Amino acid sequence: MSADFWAGYISGAAGIIIGNPLDLIKVRLQAGTRIAATSPTTYTSQFEGAGSLIRGATAPILGYGALNALLFVTYNRTTALLSQGEAPPSLWTTWTAGAVGGLATWVVSTPTELIKCRAQMSQQATSSWAITKDILRSNGIRGLYSGGMVTALRDSIGYGFYFWSYELSTRLLASSEGGISQSSAGEEAAKVLLCGGLAGVVTWASVFPLDVIKTRVQTQVMATENAPLLENITPAEPASPRKLGAIEVAKNAYRQDGMKVFFRGLGICSVRAFIVNAAQWAVYEWMMRELSSPKQASS
């Protein structure tokens, strides 16, 4: 396996471990759960103890490791193909390569997101594997790709901006320094953390309404299929004899709450995005240096 595969895999898994508690809050806000922070008792009842803060993490740790590996490998290969030796590649090339990479991750991201969202919406300690078996029993393999179209659109646009904003930030920082002095290791690490964090915020800001729709599409069937798991949670969509598509879900959400519904949870998501993506890029860049350095030649 290539260096960017392993760097992408491990950085993706690390990001999920760091960001899952905040992602749990984001998903419940997007799905229509009312989280009242007015009293400690009310807040605690929404998150049933510390164990719930890592709920739904198993599938993403495995899935997002693979997703991130696929993303970075596809992005790097597409950049090399499109740039044709241009150094550095244009920002348009960077965005396009990121979009292609994001689209390539659809096959992994859709089932991973579906399982994660359902686990996080559950009030019971439900494993990712138990949810997967329920989905397969009810709808087969096709059921794992519920919300696939909107997920593919979100990932393609989002990852385009992900790599574009990271590359833009690093170039702006480099140009502001004028290339005069050599940065220390600590300064370089700080730059990666800053640029990675900003890339995460820009990415989610660019696709957040699509992510809200995706979450509602993927959690709506829980109202009928897994009613016991929804105890004390108000589902975003009422029970329906058929599953609604993304456009219908978006229309219903707008009718109920107006435009604000498409930005519910953006604040907590931005905080999570900065922290997680700062860490992910730091791990990725460090691993690329370690895996690409010819240490064996000196031994």
UniProtKB/TrEMBL annotation:
<feature type="transmembrane region" description="Helical">
    <location>
        <begin position="6"/>
        <end position="25"/>
    </location>
</feature>
<keyword id="KW-0999">Mitochondrion inner membrane</keyword>
<dbReference type="InterPro" id="IPR002067">
    <property type="entry name" value="MCP"/>
</dbReference>
<feature type="transmembrane region" description="Helical">
    <location>
        <begin position="261"/>
        <end position="284"/>
    </location>
</feature>
<keyword id="KW-1133">Transmembrane helix</keyword>
<dbReference type="GO" id="GO:0022857">
    <property type="term" value="F:transmembrane transporter activity"/>
</dbReference>
<dbReference type="Pfam" id="PF00153">
    <property type="entry name" value="Mito_carr"/>
</dbReference>
<keyword id="KW-0496">Mitochondrion</keyword>
<feature type="repeat" description="Solcar">
    <location>
        <begin position="2"/>
        <end position="81"/>
    </location>
</feature>
<protein>
    <submittedName>
        <fullName>Mitochondrial carrier-3</fullName>
    </submittedName>
</protein>
<keyword id="KW-0472">Membrane</keyword>
<feature type="repeat" description="Solcar">
    <location>
        <begin position="187"/>
        <end position="290"/>
    </location>
</feature>
<dbReference type="GO" id="GO:0005743">
    <property type="term" value="C:mitochondrial inner membrane"/>
</dbReference>
<keyword id="KW-0812">Transmembrane</keyword>
<dbReference type="InterPro" id="IPR050567">
    <property type="entry name" value="Mitochondrial_Carrier"/>
</dbReference>
<keyword id="KW-0813">Transport</keyword>
<keyword id="KW-0677">Repeat</keyword>
<dbReference type="InterPro" id="IPR023395">
    <property type="entry name" value="MCP_dom_sf"/>
</dbReference>
<dbReference type="InterPro" id="IPR018108">
    <property type="entry name" value="MCP_transmembrane"/>
</dbReference>
<comment type="similarity">
    <text>Belongs to the mitochondrial carrier (TC 2.A.29) family.</text>
</comment>
<feature type="repeat" description="Solcar">
    <location>
        <begin position="89"/>
        <end position="172"/>
    </location>
</feature>
